[in-house]
Amino acid sequence: MGFHFLLILRYIARQETINVLNTHASIRASDKRYGTEKFYESFAKFIDCFKKSGYKETYLDGEKTSVTLAYDNFFDCSNTEVIWIKKEN
After folding, report:
1. Does residue 60 contact residue 16 with C-beta atoms inside 8 Å?
2. How many angstroms separate the Cα of 30 from the Cα of each of 37, 65, 83?
3. Bridge partners, 34 (sequence order)
4. Sequence-separated (6 or more) residues with CB below 8 Å from residue 27
């Protein structure tokens, strides 16, 4: 599911897109929080829609597209579907 580094350099310039990738990566790598299945599904949906759009980063400009909806859903899930791990004393 990952992106190849050269793909990122070539196609991804918009900060909002970079934020999606960073949010996903930071939660995936964290030992203090984890995403639910719904969180990871929302990321996969965003990536799928983004690929199908030809990696067009205009998804936040003008009319809503499937990428726009997937982007909005991903960030909703990043607020509701990420669980902090309680540290045991």
Report:
1. yes
2. 16, 31, 11
3. 83
4. 33, 34, 35, 39, 78, 82
Q: Which residue has the tokens 């990696």?
A: 55
Q: For the chain, how far is it from start to end, CA to CA, in angstroms?
A: 36
pLDDT tens digits for range 41-76? 999 999 999 999 988 999 999 999 999 999 999 999
pTM given for the model? 0.86
Residue 52 neighbours by CB under 8 Å, 6+ apart? 66
DSSP strand pairing (33-35 vs 82-84): antiparallel
Q: What is the DSSP string of 26-77?
A: HHHH-SSEEE-HHHHHHHHHHHHHHHHTTS-S-TTSSS--HHHHHHHHHHHH
